[in-house]
Structure prediction request, 288 residues.
Amino acid sequence: MVNVEYKKVVCCTFMSDEEMIELIKSNREGILQSDVRKSLGIDSKKCSRLVSKLMKKHLIRREPELAKGRNTFRLYPLTFSGPSEKHKKLLVKGRFSPCTGCTLDCAPETCLLLNEWVYAVIEEES
Amino acid sequence: MVNLDDPVIQGLLFNLVGEDGMDVVLNMPEREITDDGVAEITNVPLNIVRRTLYILFENRLATYRRERNKDSGWLTYLWKIDLNGINELLEAETEKFIRNLTTKFNFENDNMFYVCKNNCGRFVFDIVAELEFLCPNCAEDVVFDDNELIKQTLKKRINELT
Prediction:
């Protein structure tokens, strides 16, 4: 009996997560967090947890808004339009961050690959 | 839609899956496909195809579905590439890289360095001071290495990435 209920809860959490992103994606002009909560039939605590989770995954963004005298957020879907200027700084002379995919013991202080990358930055900027 | 021609995306994927793995990523069809099918299309050995798919799966860039053959009971894994999570991965890799660059910056900031005239390497003060400023490898004199430029570069790049 306990197991069945546990499965139910897990399943429900997963569905809300998926449903929420679909709901936000279908509203390009944004949707109020309170409306999302009502549409999905979940409580505000769970709703804000899910919103935080999706924001952490860079799937949505939110902006504060005053609706009917109450503070809430408008949620917008985030679409990936390519690497940002920040991400471009990971690439130097065709060499991407040596820490990505690295399987060596991590010692940034003395890492030869990291050293080479830093010298490539110096060379590029000089 | 992720642009696979973008040098940043290519650099990220290249570091993850390697040169052979890139052939898999670039030639993988959009539909679901078995690892054997991928090997056939891409002419990449099956073990490398599997390794690549596992790496992509670990980084949430590929998904699979299992199908059981009713007669034989065998499981077939149907793979599909899904690069929608690449932004999340880029962010995570950036954060990890900032952490490592900061560690390196602190190390450079807290130490004095000396280099061997024969290019044997770069040593911290404590090591060469014990050896009367002789190289631990070839016993040649070591000279002070000004790391101001390294510190400046690291600091600037950390700020740009943050």
